[in-house]
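Incident log, structure service

09:12 report received: a user says their structure output differs between two submissions of the same chain.
09:20 pulled the input from the user's history:
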Amino acid sequence: MGKKTIEINAITEGIIWKQLLIFFFPIMLGTLIQQLYTTVDTIIVGRFVGKAALASVGGPAAVLSTIVVTFFNGLANGAAVVIAQYYGAKDKGRLHTGLHTAYLFSIVVSLVISVVGAVLTPWLLKIMNTPQDMMASSTTYLRIYFMGILFTLVYNMGAAIMRAVGDSKRPLLYLVVCCVLNIGLDIFMVVILKMGIAGAALATVFSQCVSAFLVTWSLTKDYDSMKLQFRELRMEACVLKRELKIGIPGALQACAYGVTNVVIQASINSFGTDIAAGWAAYGKLDLIFWTVSSALGAAVTTFVGQNYGAGKWDRVYKSIRVNIGISYVFTGMIIFTLYAFCEPMYHMFTTDPKVIDIGVYMLRFLVPSYLLSILLENLDGGLRGVGDVLWPTIFTFGGLFLIRLPWVMILTPIYHKVEILLISYPIAWGGTLLFVIPYYFWKKKKCFNKICSEK
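09:34 re-ran on a clean worker, output below:
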């Protein structure tokens, strides 16, 4: 019986828009399905446990868990960019080293996060002004989540590596299996066994454990160009340094978003449980947009990374332009759907009419400004693909810490109105774009001038 191999999308050749779509769709569906882990928790907890539990799972717990995962994903994306460049350059030796360095790094980091997160959970919730009626349930959910963070981070690193070499289909398949498992376990543990919020957390952890196993198994069996071998696990200093050079700025950028979200969550909590619950439910619908937008950003990063490694500069910048057009088509449809049909969607999470009204107001206030974030995501993703992350990260920090954070911390307490807080989002995106756009065109001109001089 012949050895089984994986069909990989040849993204350094062919028609760019077709190759981008082929690569993008599995990432988009995979990230949407991954969000179902916590969304299903929120729906079942909100319907069968209560309003305070809904606010706990979708509010403080979601913010903190998202900070951890997005910070790590920034590091994983750094590894993925390096691996994509090695793969595009057909450098099998460094590809092998990059794979094993990244995989072991994910294990070490996850063990540290697990211990630190479980110990600091009560303190983290306290500094977020978590209401007292949410404190116990939020602590339970987060501690269980942190104890199982190894599986989440190993899956995310493994999936990033698989996508870096052009395989976006297999991570999707594994997530479909694990999402179905998660839904079944949620119903069994929360509805039937009456385990409450702990049951929802355990269902998510167990499902992520299965996804981590499947990704690891695939990396050991299914690729000719690279193969995970546990006896080869070691962190090569020079490769790790390169992965971290790209990954750390991206991780800090993601962490910066997380820090501002903590401040925003604390501000939201000051308005009371109804608004906190409305914000939590809004966050789950909001994730539909961000899942697609981030998938498009991940697609263009990998696409640019491989073509950069292969020295195909014409495809590098053309792919960014094409991906921007694709992004506005797909996310535009999502923006319209959310705006028009958000009210019936909120009934999935709660039957409380006041919470629904609050959530609808928040969503309709914010979604038109998402058009700014789409452009920002694409330009940042393209620059990451060529390994340029420092200045985009500095620009993002400026938008967050010089615009959004002062706005929320100073103006929101003065006026104490939700819309004052919400408007900080488009103002920060717009301010960041004022710097990112000129930098992108300067970088593009510099690269093409270098190519012309070499010719």
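09:41 both user submissions now match this output. Likely a transient worker issue. Closing.
09:42 reviewer note: Confidence is low (pLDDT under 50) at residues 1-7. The radius of gyration is 21 Å.
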